[in-house]
Amino acid sequence: MKKALIFDMDGTLWDTTPLLHEVWNRAMQKYDETRGRYLSLEEIRGLMGKTMYEIGQATMPGVPVERQEEIFNGCIDAEDEELLRKGGKLYPGLKETLDKLKNDYHLYIVSNGQEKYAANFISFYGFEDLFEDEETFGRTLLSKGENIKLLIERNGIDRAVYIGDTLQDESSAAYAGVPFIYASYGFGKAEKPAETIDSISGLPEALGRMRF
What we know:
Blueprint: E1 3-7, E2 14-15, H1 17-28, H2 41-47, H3 52-59, H4 65-86, E3 89-90, H5 94-101, E4 106-111, H6 117-125, E5 131-136, H7 137-140, H8 144-154, E6 159-164, H9 167-176, E7 180-183, E8 195-197, H10 203-210
Parallel strand pairs: 1-4, 1-6, 4-5, 6-7, 7-8
Antiparallel strand pairs: 2-3
């Protein structure tokens, strides 16, 4: 039986908000519609896990959707370049925990980030030997729940759990028909997760309690 752990990224595997705070604010000053608009760190944190369309509506109200997409893509290009240079902040114990889990499970990523977001994360940290596949909103333009289902089908997975940190992650797992483990150290809330962890290092024990 092929058992899989499918991970959200922001607030679950790493924290990129300080870098995004710097890069997005700098990039937004290049456009007439957003010049003089600065996002606080708390605003950035509140945007984590949302799609580019949701972020565009939240940060550029009144700007036509097509122009929102152009500006957001400019921010993402700057973000991709900076993440490849600096990376983000991994949560403590991440590499050690993934190394341990790899012995018993197949590891994957499903993120609402842009097309290269997960691939850049894997490449920067040399995690190619840990994660077998990844999917993003930026590649498929599908919801996170649909992308979880897509990844499960593509990889012939028999059983899976999704690990994330927001209500959207929880509802996405429910849509895909898989249990949800809530990372309470991240950016959001959950209502009725199968398990809750207060650090990534607690994941093996949570899986044990679930008998997964």
